[in-house]
Amino acid sequence: MSNSKLTDRFGRTVNYVRLSVTDRCDFRCVYCMAEEMTFLPRQQVLTLEEIARVAKTFVSLGTEKIRLTGGEPLVRKDILELVREIGTYGLRDFAMTTNGSQLSTMAEPLRKAGLKRLNISLDSLDPEKFASITRTGKLSRVLEGIDAARDAGFKGIKLNTVVMKGGNDHEVPDLIEFARKKNIDITFIEEMPLGEISEHDRGQALCTSDEVRDIVRQHHDLMPTPEDSGGPARYYRMSDSPIKVGFISPHSHNFCSTCNRVRVTVEGRLLLCLGNEHSVDLRRVLRGHPVTDDKLRQTIIDSMDLKPERHHFSSNGDVQILRFMNMTGG
Ligand code: SAM
Q: Which atom of ligand 1 is least distant from the CA of 120?
């Protein structure tokens, strides 16, 4: 039973918040950002104290799970201070999504600061392909980062792979073998139409979760399990490995009816849905009411009425949401 005081018009309880801590990133993944990006000026970005106020207020409203994301959360200066602070809030789950490029030095401090789980993005095991997808990333650093996360004792590590037809779909078997060998879970994601991109046609590149499952099944059995990590993924298991294989399928298996999440951008925009523009300006409330959190609390409660029933991503590749994922907080 959830203790959340946040319920929307459709009876869904919100107990999971994704907080973006920066719009900046050291990678420029082709499906996530344009090559030349303009980032937010500093005064528009929430301070770490403001982000912590938002987190604490959500926790007071029954939030049980917080994920820090971005942009790349590990490029935010003093991120460990925020992790340390949120680590004291007694969350059931406290996670971060990262590209892994800095984990070789940051994994252990993050663990010591109270972070419980890590999602690490990994779209390719081929150094050249990896460099072309991320535009600026180096595969070896990410692989070192994955090992560092395991060495630091993180139990809940998960890999995230966005699968693109004609891009990295041929690597699905290798990625599965890698996850099995490292004994870490892996989730395959359908690309979402967020922000205008130039590198590929999203409609043509869409590789559905059904197609990915077919690829995996050429090598392994895959059985659905009702296990749930409190997020949008549906999970499968193989009979000869302890790892879970997840699928996030915004196009082919809409996950809106069980949505329990909201996002807060680093500008303090509370986004009620990944695939809609509905938002509430929390920064104005934070800065207009610096002493107590009553107004912030009430604004968050009232915002639940704005949560849309569902997103309407079409799979033809048309852009429906102008925000890039780095702004949204993936
Ligand atoms: N920098 C971190 C990282 O690389 O994981 C966190 C932010 S990133 C925006 C979070 C996740 O969103 C990554 O796994 C990335 O692959 C995914 N992502 C970005 N743009 C996407 C899109 N258009 N469709 C689906 N997933 C996307």
A: 5
